[in-house]
Write a structure and sequence with these properties.
The protein is of the alpha/beta class. It contains 13 helices and 14 strands. α1 packs antiparallel against α9. It comes from Marinifilum flexuosum.
């Protein structure tokens, strides 16, 4: 097979019926819900933001949608057609005209033969550059196809982008994520029906119950009482950071979540990546669509939100506290290290610069260049998405003693 960046998506495709019955819901693809629209919106914007960088760097990639569906949700394009649409848009950029051997391998898979036949009809009527975009269509079960993809190390150096949208979260295991992330240049985006599992975190399920198995596999605390849904999601993040390794040189992945709040229904996105550039792209997409980078409120007018406006400042405040603690404990950090810390926390360098400016005015930090010369001009602090030089951020010792 081929390789590329990983998108893994888990989603409850029906908010009103038990998960055990979802695969019988033949009407699912007849319309598109608000949350499905927002999911595909983030997926689409991330592709636009990150894919051009990968193609310019590597020249080829694999994008695999392993639960692709029929191609449309009612009158709306589903993930396969959204992808082809965006690829057409990206490849029209003149900078790709001089790129030799440019190839984008696209793998669409669904175990439902009817979905595959419908998708083939949609693709046959779709206009795209068939010399660059190579489409491969399969009709297999996910659990049969995935091991074959993972067992092809000769292609592991190519960036890999897997978009998985199964009918139940129980289809994908932690070991799947571990194996996928061991491949180089991989990313995973998990789409979880988080509110469904959150409601039952303290239920008395038997050990073999699917919901209990999932909660115990994907959280640190397991079946327990959580203060709120964000504590639950943070616990999932902690478990992912604990269980998933990338490589010996950089074993700890970047993980961030975004909650999709539809009022009565909730879903969540978890990005797992080994690349700060990928994480930064998702941070930008998240802040474009949310007030705080965490809660994507997509409720309809008749629905009430699970969250108050207080949440809009909660995460900024938490980031500020964690950043100050980090700077104080380390005492001296480079601008690159501070930027990496910020990106890992789900924020952007512009947010780091805001806090550093505040601390600088309070005389809690000083900025130096390599010759120990202080820098007062914030434009020369090297705090940006692409810093051109290294600077040193030093916590003022006197202020540290006072604290």
């Amino acid at each position: 097979m081929f390789g590329f960046l990983f998108f893994i998506i888990f989603i409850n495709k029906n908010n009103n019926r038990p998960l055990i019955y979802i695969m019988q819901n033949e009407a699912f693809f007849e319309k598109q819900s608000v949350l499905t629209y927002q999911k595909t919106k983030i997926y689409e914007e991330y592709i636009i933001e990150y894919l051009p960088r990968l193609l310019m760097t590597y020249g080829s990639c694999l994008i695999a949608d392993l639960f692709c569906g029929p191609g449309k949700n009612g009158d709306h394009n589903g993930s396969p057609l959204i992808l082809l649409n965006r690829l057409n848009y990206i490849l029209k950029n003149p900078k790709f005209n001089s790129k030799e051997n440019l190839k984008v391998h696209v793998l669409f898979n669904d175990e439902d033969l009817g979905n595959i036949e419908n998708l083939k009809k949609e693709i046959s009527a779709f206009s795209f550059n068939r010399d660059i975009i190579k489409i491969h269509i399969r009709n297999q079960k996910y659990e049969d196809l995935l091991p074959d993809l993972v067992r092809r190390p000769e292609k592991s150096s190519i960036p890999k982008f897997f978009f998985l949208d199964p009918f139940t979260y129980s289809n994908v295991k932690m070991v799947d994520l571990q194996n996928l992330m061991l491949l180089s240049h991989s990313e995973v985006l998990l789409f979880l029906p988080v509110f469904f599992t959150y409601r039952f975190t303290s239920a008395k399920f038997k050990k073999e119950h699917k919901t209990r198995i999932f909660i115990e596999e994907f959280t640190q605390k397991g079946m327990a009482d959580y203060n709120d849904i964000h504590e639950f999601m943070t616990d999932i993040k902690s478990r992912l950071l604990t269980e998933i390794k990338i490589n010996r040189m950089n074993p700890v992945p970047y993980v961030r979540y975004v909650l999709l709040d539809g009022g009565g229904s909730k879903n969540s996105l978890f990005l797992i990546t080994g690349h700060p550039s990928g994480m930064l792209c998702m941070n930008k997409v998240a802040f474009k669509n949310t007030d705080d980078g965490k809660c994507f409120k997509v409720k309809e007018s008749s629905q009430t939100s699970l969250f108050s406006n207080h949440e809009n400042t909660r995460f900024h405040s938490l980031f500020r506290k964690k950043l100050i603690k980090y700077l104080e404990s380390e005492e001296v950090v480079t601008n690159s290290a501070a930027i990496d810390f910020t990106i890992r926390e789900g924020f952007r360098p512009m947010h780091l610069k805001e806090v550093i400016k505040e601390l600088y005015v309070l005389k809690k930090v000083r900025i130096f260049v390599e010759n120990n010369k202080t820098v007062s001009d914030s434009r020369k602090w090297g705090i940006s998405e692409s810093p051109k030089k290294e600077t040193i951020i030093k916590w003022t010792q006197d202020e540290k003693n006072k604290n």
